[in-house]
Design brief:
This protein is α+β, with helices and mostly antiparallel strands. Helix content is about 30%, strand content about 35%. The relative contact order is 0.18. Keywords: Membrane, Transmembrane, Transmembrane helix.
Length: about 120
């Protein structure tokens, strides 16, 4: 079963007022989604974001953003550079591929040398 992991790409401190407690301690965090399995590690192009108030700990959803928060978000969103999408095979995958190729080569060798003529 593959599990999903969110890795932090960029964090930024915002000096805008929190809509809940009106303090100026907001933290903007951008995440990139990674899917990790026994056979592969996949970096997706999905980028998500989260704005939290450091003082009161509340999540600031886009519905309650002010124009200042929106402008700051757009500025930092342009600066975010996610990792490229890729799939990286794990060591288990390489072992299974090697075993498959070895067994296939052995069967072809045995077939062409005539070992299976008596069986078929």
């Amino acid at each position: 079963m593959a599990k999903e992991q969110l890795d932090i790409i960029k964090e930024a401190d915002l000096t805008n007022n929190c809509p809940e407690c009106f303090n100026q301690e907001l933290k903007l965090t951008f995440y990139q989604k990674h899917v990790i399995s026994k056979f592969y590690n996949k970096t997706t192009g999905e980028v998500s974001q989260d704005i939290r108030c450091v003082t009161c700990g509340s999540v600031i959803y886009p519905v309650s953003w002010t124009e200042d928060i929106e402008r700051s978000f757009e500025y930092f969103q342009k600066m975010v550079v996610p990792q490229p999408k890729r799939i990286k095979l794990t060591q288990l995958s390489f072992v299974l591929i090697f075993l498959f190729l070895t067994i296939s080569a052995a069967l072809f060798y045995l077939y062409f040398t005539g070992v299976f003529k008596d069986v078929i």
